[in-house]
Design goal:
2 domains; 15 strands; Rossmann fold; 7 helices; OB fold (Dihydrolipoamide Acetyltransferase, E2P); 30% helix
Amino acid sequence: MIKAVLIDDERLARTELRKLLMDFPEIEIVGEAANAAEGLESIENLQPDLVFLDIQMPGKTGFDMLSELEKSPHVIFTTAYDEYALKAFEVNALDYLLKPVDSKRLADAIHKLHIAEEKEAMSPAIGTNKSLLSEHDQVFVKDGERCWFVKLSDIRLFESVGNYAKVFFANNKPLILKSLNALEERLDEKVFFRANRKHIVNLRLIEKIEPYFNGGLLLELKGGEKIEVSRRQTVKFKEMMSL
């Protein structure tokens, strides 16, 4: 059973969605909320697997609400406005449904949910537990409709973007809903180094090291990214890399 919470300031919209979801017996609606504050409380208390989330609500928007979550359930946006579609996929939404919600589009969204859950069951996802990951582990990364299984050793850089992290591997840069601090707890510090407040680099994929301002260092990665090592972290870096 997939536990779902409906978050929308329009009671009529929630009622309509409830009716449509009756066609999906695997979805159990465990709660409703009329604004972001209630939504945060519902997610915290009910721990749903899925949230149907309106974007424009009084007070905080749906995006604001998501940014306050440490661990996000799957999200399907429901909104009357189509201009937020790109941003919705930037924050890892499963799908983006325009109101009034069409039953066929809802079925497509639920199908995507099943695919995502199957893939997550097959592979350890970054951030789903607290165990340490080795560089040989393969992790599941999802950004919007795109999914990857990536070996950690192929990830050259994690970059903080607000409450999200951009993951750099090959020519891809998907966003995941995870803070750098949470990632750092799970990554092997002998391989992944916190260069500064915004970046964690793969030490094995550094191409070049140069002195930089204020006693810091500038690292050039194999993908061409140039990352500054803060002065404090430079001391640690030199200790780690010296004989």
